[in-house]
Amino acid sequence: MAVMAGGRGGWFGPAFGLRLLLASVLQVVSAFGAEFSSEKCREVGFSSNLLCSSCDLLGQFNLLLLDSNCRGCCQEEAQFETKKYVRGSDPVLKLLDDNGNIAEELSILKWNTDSVEEFLSEKLERI
Fold this sequence. Notes:
The protein is mainly α and 127 residues long. It contains six helices and two strands. A hairpin with a 5-residue loop joins strand 1 and strand 2. The longest helix has 18 residues. The radius of gyration is 37 Å and the shape is rod-shaped.
């Protein structure tokens, strides 16, 4: 086994330096792209609830040196779609005559269920 590792074509052969360099580069790239822990962010002076839009403002104050640390600690803002809803119409009782035309229209906005039931039992004919 020792001969294989040290011999030609083994792990420590001519390509060992290249493998070591590649492993080092991959480790640096993965560490660079990773987010910082909340402890690391506090150590470099950033809050754990920092928004990434704040990092965009660093250039205005000539603080671009802090940009990589800022980006490692920031949280993306959620992009929610905002919709406005028109208020619904108030509840209304429409009483019809024998021909199906509206005879009476009553707002029952502040009526409770018992009041509606009582009113309908008085006004409607039982079949």
